[in-house]
Design brief:
The complex is a heterodimer of chains A (364) and B (239). Chain A has 364 residues and is α/β, with parallel strands linked by helices. Helices cover 67% and strands 7% of the residues of chain A. Chain A has a five-stranded mixed sheet with strand order 2-1-3-5-7, with helices on both faces. In chain A, α3 links the parallel β1 (50-55) and β2 (76-79). In chain A, α2 packs parallel to α12 and α7 crosses α14 (314-326). The longest helix of chain A is centred in the middle third of the chain and has 31 residues, at 165-195. With 239 residues, chain B is α/β, with parallel strands linked by helices. Helix content of chain B is 33%, strand content 27%. In chain B, the strands form two sheets. A six-stranded mixed sheet of chain B has the order 6-7-8-3-9-10, with helices on both faces. Classes of the chains: A alpha/beta (364), B alpha/beta (239). The interface between A and B is medium-sized, with 14 and 25 residues.
């Protein structure tokens, strides 16, 4: 082995990188951006899950529990009426509420068992778990004093006791996997079209830009839908991911995401010269969306500024839409699903226009 | 359809890329049914001029008229065949699938077999392009450019990297097409190909130094060899 030859290769590699400013910026900038985002997300003073306390207890125990919960660091508990709690649970403002019945104190003294009703929204297992734990801790503090057993009655608005993390992530990932893979395949395929010179040939033909974009869109959408069938069948039949909604609606949303991904790929391919540069869009475009679109961390617990950012990301609405359909069983009459579909559809139109408008730019 | 006197008319076209003037008042005329050679060294503006004819480059000044219509014009592009410097093909498709694709996007419903036979690739029609030799790819690329029977064929250095035998074959094919009425613009930096053209345009510094037949150009420069004519005219233009 010749050290000189090895050094030549190493030197050449570093020389290449020195001239590739974009790769250098990515190599040293992207980790800071991604880790900074993650740090801010987890330690940036994001809000804790909101829960309601409905205290109907005639005795003193209910007030003591409510006071314990109000001091909790893991949930934001506020006392409210039963109807307000039910309404807020349905609108998604609360992760759940605990109801302390009128005979709560007397039963605790008589039977040495306290059984509050815990009503959970249920679509986000992480939040449900945090809430049940906070309630349990508040009771444990008092149970130690009065020597009673804690046996809550838990109900779920969505999902159920068997609803687990896979059910929660599965719904989001069914959409995300299609979006991500179609985006990568499109951007690379379109750059190959450029690189091999065939795009120049297409541009020298009577093809209109819209025809190229539409042709690409249809071709990849066919592939994406076949992929969507595979992904969905695998999740529902093999992994048994919870689905309370209409499979047709899931397909509709997946198709819209595939169309958006194809056009985003075409659009962003205008800003890359090589497939290598195209792949660099993944940490810049995809990773922040994964962190901020609610796939992993609930948007309701993000720090305020990030919450605003999340609300402008189209993937947020796609993920929310998928969860609305699969977890909550939403149909097209739900206003929240209409908003989700509307935003994803709007984003599709935007990227279609952007990709068609910029198609000619880098060819001249 | 009215027959235009010229297949291509370029008048005082200017194109700048930053501080570089790739075309600096280029003017030329290509008659219908002739093989027109655009000769010049690398960087002279040949490719930019061809790209201006098909609208891939938008001139900063001057006018470009192709087949009687101001460029860029999408309808006219269906009557133009364009062969890029590299054999721009889909490597995963067969020769026949490539030619059929370019026929379809140019609005032709048939002609695939004829085009492949013309370039003598019909027997290899089922081979994927990535398995073809360089020369075969060049011929396949030519088939893609002419499958829709264009009135104007633009060939950007089609003989670069081509062996002498194939080069002769290609030139025979170009001349056959011109004989059948196709106007052909061939760019090249190889002077010995000039003899095969009906007329020539010598291009350098983004403008036409001279236009005419080989003998006319030699006479204009007062020399016996085309290469010398080019050098003399270049020097005169550079002064």
């Amino acid at each position: 082995m010749s050290g000189r030859r090895v050094a030549a290769i190493t030197r050449r590699l570093l020389q290449q990188f020195r001239r590739d400013r974009r790769t250098l910026a990515l190599l040293f900038g992207a980790p800071l951006v991604i880790l900074g985002l993650l740090g801010y997300l987890l330690r940036g003073g994001g809000s804790v899950p909101a829960m309601g306390v409905v205290n109907l207890d005639d005795g003193p125990l209910g007030a003591a529990i409510a006071s314990q919960l109000a001091q909790s660091n893991t949930v934001s508990a506020s006392t409210m009426s039963r109807s307000a709690a039910q309404s807020k649970l349905r609108s998604g403002e609360l992760a759940g509420y605990v109801l302390l019945p009128s005979d709560f104190s007397s039963r605790a003294q008589q039977f040495r068992v306290i059984s509050p009703e815990i009503h959970l929204e249920g679509s986000q297992p992480g939040l449900s778990q945090t809430m049940v734990q906070a309630v349990s801790e508040s009771f444990a503090a008092l149970a130690g004093q009065v020597g009673v057993r804690f046996a809550p009655q838990v109900t779920f608005l969505y999902g159920g006791p068997s609803f687990d993390t896979l059910d929660y992530f599965g719904a989001a990932f069914i959409g995300f996997v299609v979006f991500f893979l179609v985006f990568v395949v499109t951007i690379v395929a379109f750059l190959r079209e450029r690189g091999q010179g065939t795009l120049e040939r297409l541009m020298a033909s009577p093809l209109r830009r819209g025809e190229i974009v539409l042709g690409y869109m249809l071709g990849f959408t066919v592939l994406a839908l076949v992929q969507a069938v595979e992904v969905l069948a695998f999740c529902l039949l093999i992994l048994h991911v919870h689905n309370a909604g209409n499979v047709g609606l899931i397909f509709l949303l997946e198709a819209l995401m595939a169309i958006a991904a194809v056009n985003l790929g075409i659009f962003l391919s205008m800003f890359a010269r090589t497939e290598f540069q195209a792949v660099q869009f993944i940490p810049l475009v995809i990773v922040p969306q994964v962190l901020l679109s609610g796939i992993i961390f609930p948007i309701s617990t993000e720090p305020g500024p990030l919450m605003v950012l999340s609300r402008v990301l189209p993937l947020t609405y796609a993920v929310e839409g998928m969860r609305n359909i699969m977890i909550k069983g939403a149909d097209i009459s739900w206003s929240s699903l209409q908003l989700d579909l509307g935003v994803v559809l709007g984003f599709c139109f935007l990227v279609i226009l952007a990709s068609a408008a910029t198609l000619r730019r880098r060819i001249g | 359809m009215a027959v235009e006197a010229y297949a291509v008319e370029v008048d005082g076209v200017v194109k700048r890329f930053g501080s570089l003037r790739a075309l600096d008042g280029a003017t030329l005329r290509i008659r219908r049914g002739e093989v027109y050679g655009l000769l010049g060294p690398n960087g002279a503006g040949k490719t930019t001029l061809i790209r201006a004819l098909i609208g891939l480059v938008v001139p900063d000044g001057g006018t470009v008229t192709v087949l009687g219509r101001r460029a860029p014009n999408l309808d006219v592009l269906g009557r133009v065949g364009y062969m890029t410097q590299q054999a721009a093909l889909y490597p995963d498709l067969s020769a026949e699938e490539n030619v059929a694709f370019f026929a379809a996007i140019n609005g032709a419903h048939d002609g695939v077999r004829e085009a492949l036979e013309f370039v003598e690739l019909w027997d290899r029609r089922g081979s994927v392009v990535s398995s073809l030799s360089g020369g075969m790819r060049t011929r396949c690329s030519l088939a893609c450019a002419l499958v829709h029977k264009p009135d104007l064929l633009l060939l950007d250095e089609p003989t670069v990297g081509v062996d002498p035998l194939l080069r002769v074959q290609l030139w025979h094919r170009f001349q056959r097409m011109a004989h059948d009425g196709t106007s052909i613009l061939v760019s090249s930096h190889v002077m010995d190909e000039a003899e095969r053209c009906d007329r020539l345009g010598l291009i350098r510094f983004g403008r036409l130094l001279a236009e005419g037949t080989v003998s006319e150009l030699k006479a204009t420069a007062g020399v016996d060899r085309l290469e010398d004519a080019f050098l003399k005219l270049s020097e005169a233009a550079g002064k």
